[in-house]
Amino acid sequence: MKIEEYLTSLPQSILSGQDVQLPDNAFREIFRFAELGKDDIFYHLGCGNGKGILIALEEFGVKNAVGIDNDGKKIILAKDLLKEKNLPNYTFQCNDIRQVDFCDATVILFWFADQKIIDEMMDRFSRLKSGCKIITIWGPLPGCLPDKVEFPYILNIIPFKKANDIKEQLLAIFCTDCVDFVTAWEFAERYTKAIGSPEAGNDRFLTILQSLVIWINAKNLGVACGDEIPQPIRTYISILKTFFNIDVEYLLNK
Is the peptide bond before 152 cis (omega within 30 degrees of 0)? Predict the structure, then answer.
């Protein structure tokens, strides 16, 4: 089956970014990356169990923190978590992120893979006040050049800097003139370690998938190193096809 078919077999809540909980240390890395501090009004769009809100308040001392999630059960868990800590200056909303007002935000964490949601949010983001920071994970905001990258964390600041094309955007993220297998694997591994549970260890399957996606995208955009397909890429394409019945080779020159 093609990789798109494999992805559609996964729960849609996971694909949309609505059902994935970041580990605590990932939140700390993200907040240090964004230089979150006492003057910030922080919004977590898709806040899950509220851990990000708790860490933003307790460890980074933000002025105010707002968590939004469309799952009522998660909002209840988040409220219970913060109530135990007896912390001030936070709000939770059970709502669709496309329906809420976040015009006072100075920092927003936005991790969604659903392209429809991303496209709908872009216009709203562009109307935020100058200097507001939007943090994404793995994928950049469409058509934008990042202001800061510590992959897999990507930061855009209002007003957005527009990329001339996807190639320029890709090179800005990977900070290299060309992407080889080693670069693709390194960045895929950073992503896996960032979102994975420390108890689970490194998820090699996810790393393999992500490294192939990175390299194939680079190849199709003309920014891969060399004309030949590296042997490790050929090997992993074969492994996915033979043992998992997942086809990614057709993506080359799609």
Answer: yes
Pick among 3.40.50.150, 3.10.450.710, 3.30.540.10, 2.60.40.10: CATH of 11-172: 3.40.50.150
- Which residues of the chain form CATH 3.40.50.150? 11-172
pLDDT in tens, 140-158: 899 999 999 999 999 999 9
Tokens linked to 163: 């990329």
pLDDT averaged over every residue in the chain: 88
Distance CA 147, CA 173 (A): 10
Does residue 7 have a pLDDT over 50? no
> Long-range contacts: 6-10, Cβ < 8 Å, 24+?
6/244, 6/246
Look up tokens 């003309």; give the residue. Answer: 222
Query: Going by C-beta distance under 8 Å and a sequence separation of 6 or more, which residues neighbour residue 35?
Result: none
